[in-house]
Amino acid sequence: MPALAGSCCSNMWRCPALETGLADGVLRALESVLALAVGGDVAVLLTRLPPMRDVFATIGRHTLPVYVTHGLVIAVVAELLSDFAGAEPWRYRIFPVLVIVSVAGSLLLEAALERLRFPRLYRAPRLPEVLSTAAGASAPPTTRA
User: What's the pTM value of the predicted model, to 2 decimals?
Assistant: First the structure.
């Protein structure tokens, strides 16, 4: 969440006159620090609202699918919106849309794959089975909690 809020702040207010040389680098560094601080504060405030707390808790429980598939979702959405992304009004404002759609798309893809009986796609293999299979021995019985 801090990345989304921070990037929204960071990308919407660019000053082309200041985008040169060392001054640009210093301003971008300060802007990034400020955006991260604002994003963190916004995330903390949003989690105090009960509906948002539930949304963020759900996303937090499903970070692996988001991490694994967000790049694919972003690539598809960016290609679909490529005609609009180059236009000046959309150029910097498209990033929050990509973040929201990539997270939602990743969660929807996970749900669809779970329904199609592909739950292992987002699950790490159990370590004892992997080690014993690699050694050529049969896997010891494991108990599930």
Answer: 0.55
